[in-house]
């Protein structure tokens, strides 16, 4: 459905360090971007994820209350690896890896808040 999604970050260097670590756990690589130009993209070319500092520097970056982004994993182990690495890199826990039966009996997911407070879910169908 989406070609790409982007989220605003306060400090591109801090966020690149975080997302390089966690995206590697999912098998996603940096596609393009430039720290000096304050953006970076990760994932497959047909559906990728961008982090960027705001173009309008007079406004603060705010995490959206009530929304979250879900990133697809291929395996349970990738979900576990993403979650562990995210916490190691300073993310806040929002739901440890596990089956979410209220969604489906094969819905294996974990939830974290990234360094800017964005809620990120990682999901594998197992």
Overview of this protein structure:
- The protein contains 2 helices and 8 strands.
- It has 126 residues and is an alpha/beta fold.
- The chain has one domain (4-55, 63-125): 2,3-Dihydroxybiphenyl 1,2-Dioxygenase, domain 1 (Roll).
- A 4-stranded mixed beta sheet has the order 1-4-3-2, with helices on one face.
- The longest helix is centred in the N-terminal third of the chain and has 14 residues, at 12-25.
- The mean pLDDT is 96.
CATH architecture: Roll
CATH class: Alpha Beta
Adjacency order of strands in the biggest sheet: 1-4-3-2
CATH superfamily: 2,3-Dihydroxybiphenyl 1,2-Dioxygenase, domain 1
What structural class results from the helix and strand content? Answer: alpha/beta
Q: Tally the beta strands.
A: 8
Number of helices: 2
Measured distance between first and last alpha carbons: 22 Å
**Percent of residues in helical segments?**
10-25%
Largest sheet, if any?
4 strands, mixed
CATH topology: 2,3-Dihydroxybiphenyl 1,2-Dioxygenase, domain 1
Compute the CA-based radius of gyration: 14 Å
Average per-residue pLDDT, rounded, comes to 96
Instruction: Tally the structural domains.
Output: 1
Strand percentage: 35-45%
Shape: globular
């Amino acid at each position: 459905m989406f070609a790409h999604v982007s989220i605003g970050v306060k400090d591109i260097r801090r966020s690149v360090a975080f997302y390089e670590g966690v995206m590697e756990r999912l098998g996603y690589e940096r596609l393009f971007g430039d720290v000096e130009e304050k953006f970076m993209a990760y994932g497959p070319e047909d559906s990728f994820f961008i982090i960027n500092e705001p173009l309008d520097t007079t406004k603060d970056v705010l995490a959206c209350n009530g929304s979250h982004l879900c990133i697809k994993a291929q395996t349970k182990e990738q979900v576990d690896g993403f979650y562990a690495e995210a916490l190691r890199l300073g993310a806040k826990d929002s739901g440890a890896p596990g089956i979410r039966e209220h969604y489906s009996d094969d819905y294996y997911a974990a939830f974290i808040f990234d360094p800017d407070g964005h809620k990120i879910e990682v999901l594998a169908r197992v």
